[in-house]
Amino acid sequence: MIPLFYFIILSAILFVIGLIGFLIRRNIILLFMCVEIMLNAVNINLVAFSSYYDSLDGQILSIFVMAVAAAEAAVGFGILIAFYRNKNIIDSDKADLMKW
Amino acid sequence: MRHVLFFIFSIASIFAALMVISRKNVVHSALSLVLLFFTTSGLYILTGAELVAAMQIFLYAGAIIVIYIFVIMMINMRKGTTDDIENLPKIFIIGAGCLFFAEIMYFLSKANYAGMKDIYSVEKVNSSGGMTYNIAKIMYTKYLYPFEVISLILLIAMIGAIVLAKKADKK
Fold first, then answer.
1. Count of pairs with CB atoms under 8 A, one residue in A, one in B
2. pLDDT tens-digit map of B46-86
3. ipTM > 0.95?
């Protein structure tokens, strides 16, 4: 058996990479990709814990996470296409319609 | 052998994630994301979660990446974006990320992982119909209500995406 802590370290590294990418990039499509990286890190954690505690709940939760990721991608790209059609930009810093 | 495979898959997935956040061209990022999904699927196989691994490939590498590529092809990248941070240097953000990682590691090293063992060990799962059968059994009994909620979420997301992406009708 691979130690559980290896999986936890790997998932923490992937989560932090996704977080850094979310903060340093401005392209909205890349921000969605970074969210996918973070959700993948969470899924790795869930599946590893589920296999270490001889339980199947973690795998079911990871399937739910995948479904929510699919819904998020669909709605997010709907919003992105509507935004691009109106403003002609995909830069997250230039989206200032609701800025105070 | 399993350790070697784990290290190959984990190094490949970290490399793919770094490629995703560092490439200038968004198509290269999307292709690196495919590599990340495949290596993650290999990690799931190593833990014995074959159904989740298959769904990872079907759903992420099959369906979600297609949406990404479609949207990338629909949008003119050259015109819309200048992908550079001006007001805050990148090194601060990377330092903050490393600090966050150190914080996670500190608290995880203090955590107590002695949890309750459930009844679904590998031998029992394999002798009673396999992983997919057992997951389906739990999903349609214990997790029936969240399952229905997820189906509703997907329906609402589908309708919302269609409404949002529809062209506004000209008066």
1. 226
2. 998 889 999 999 988 888 999 899 888 888 766 555 555 55
3. no
- Residue A11's nearest CA partner among B160, B43, B99 is B43
Alpha-carbon dihedral A78, A79, A81, A84, rounded to 10 degrees = 180
Find the farthest-apart pair of alpha carbons in chain A and give their distance in angstroms, rounded. Answer: 54
Q: Contact, B13 vs A14, CB < 8 A?
A: yes
pLDDT for B155-168, tens place per residue? 999 999 888 888 76
The encoded tokens of residue B17 equal 């994630």
| Side-chain-facing half-sphere of A27: CA atoms under 13 Å | 28
pLDDT tens, B84-141? 555 567 788 889 999 999 999 999 888 888 777 777 777 787 788 888 888 899 899 9
DSSP 8-state assignment for residue B170: P
Select from B6, B21, B135 the residue whose CB has the most chain A CBs within 10 Å, as the one to mutate to test that interface: B21
CA distance A31 to chain B (A): 9
Give every CB contact of residue B135 below 8 A, 6+ residues apart in sequence: A56, A59, A60, A63, B51
